[in-house]
C-alpha cells in the first residue's frame, strides 16, 4: 500500500481505532453487518440528492461546490475528529490534482448542523502526517491494542476484538 492508496475510510479508521484500520487493511470488512453503517448509508442516500459523489480512486467524497469547498454528509449526532480528518484528506487529494480547494464543509443532518474548516497549510501538513500514520499502522506486523470496550459500542469490528 502506497500513499496514493490511502483513502478516506483509512483516515476515518485511524482516528476511530487503529486496530480497526489494521483489520480493514487485511481485508476484514464486517461493515455490511452493522446497523450503524446501514443507518449512515441511509442518511447519506437521502441527504443532498442533487450532488454527485466524486471518485478519486482510493478516496470517494460526497461533493465539491462551485467555490471548491468539499462537502461531506455525516450520520452521527456528534461531530468527531475523524470527520475533520477525512475532509482534510480529501482536500489534500484535490490540492494534489491542482484544484484550489478552500476547505471542508461537514453536514450533520441528524442535528441540523454544519461545520466549516478552511484548508490551511497546517491542515495540509496534518493530512500528510495522517497518511504516514495510516501506512505505519497498516504495515505493522501485529495489530494495535484494542480500545477499552466502552469505546467499541456500535463498532462493526467488535466481534474481531472482543471474542475470546
TrEMBL record:
Coiled coil: none annotated. PANTHER family: CRISPR-ASSOCIATED EXONUCLEASE CAS4. Residues 8-162 form the DUF83 domain. It comes from Streptomyces triticirhizae. The lineage of its organism: Bacteria, Bacillati, Actinomycetota, Actinomycetes, Kitasatosporales. This is Dna2/Cas4 domain-containing protein.
Amino acid at each position: 500500500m502506497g500513499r496514493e492508496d490511502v483513502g478516506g475510510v483509512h483516515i476515518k479508521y485511524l482516528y476511530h481505532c487503529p486496530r480497526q484500520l489494521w483489520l480493514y487493511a487485511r481485508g476484514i470488512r464486517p461493515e455490511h453487518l452493522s446497523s450503524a453503517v446501514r443507518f449512515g448509508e441511509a442518511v447519506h442516500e437521502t441527504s443532498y440528492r442533487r450532488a454527485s459523489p466524486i471518485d478519486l480512486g482510493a478516496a470517494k467524497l460526497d461533493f465539491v461546490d462551485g467555490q471548491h469547498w468539499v462537502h461531506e454528509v455525516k450520520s452521527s449526532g456528534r461531530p468527531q475528529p475523524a470527520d475533520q480528518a477525512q475532509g482534510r484528506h480529501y482536500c489534500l487529494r484535490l490540492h494534489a490534482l491542482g484544484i484550489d480547494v478552500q476547505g471542508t464543509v461537514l453536514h450533520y443532518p441528524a442535528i441540523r448542523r454544519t461545520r466549516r474548516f478552511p484548508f490551511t497549510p497546517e491542515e495540509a501538513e496534518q493530512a500528510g502526517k495522517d497518511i504516514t500514520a495510516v501506512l505505519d499502522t497498516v504495515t505493522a506486523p501485529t495489530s494495535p491494542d484494542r480500545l477499552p470496550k466502552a469505546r467499541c459500542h456500535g463498532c462493526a469490528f467488535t466481534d474481531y476484538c472482543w471474542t475470546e
